[in-house]
Amino acid sequence: MTHRIGVLLSGRGSNFEALADSVSAGRIPNAEISVVISNKPSAPGLERAKSRGIPARAIPSKGLEREAYDRQVVAVLQEYKVNLICLAGYMRLLSPHFVAAFPQRILNIHPSLLPSFPGLESQKQALDYGVKFAGCTVHLVDENLDAGPIIRQAVVPVLDTDDEHTLSERILKEEHRIYTEAVNIILEGNYKIAGRRVIRSA
Question: Using CA atoms, how far apart are residues 125 and 117, in angstroms rounded to an integer?
């Protein structure tokens, strides 16, 4: 069986490209990215998807209430028979309708060690707070902001010379690595959820 992945993005699509590379190289076996969707028609990630021969759809969100918009996105994902959704820089909070349509089948990558520094500008938050370690988190998505059970995390030391750009670049390398690992964990199905914990099976 081929796993059908849908990717949602709002910008350049760096994590989408990392996932696409992993699918092409067989690091995510028996899988394909079936469709890429953006709420922003100008998102560079859409063109990057088209250049790879992956269907790319722009569904503008401006002026729509969250659930009305999400119903459009869910319909397209169902049209492409997607069974796993990866958020890759998707700058929208999902509605309960969206989450219920794909229970425990939506992943997000966030550039902090959640639950620290959710939301926007996580790297700036980390630097402003003075932490010595930052990182990234892949988690299952619920209807709350950056709040679902955690699948994988990676730690990055914060250097005295770091600014937002240098810290973001080092975190991004880890994002690309652990997103592939998290997708494989979910697709293989060798895990259970106990409270907020995602525990891999032996």
Answer: 6
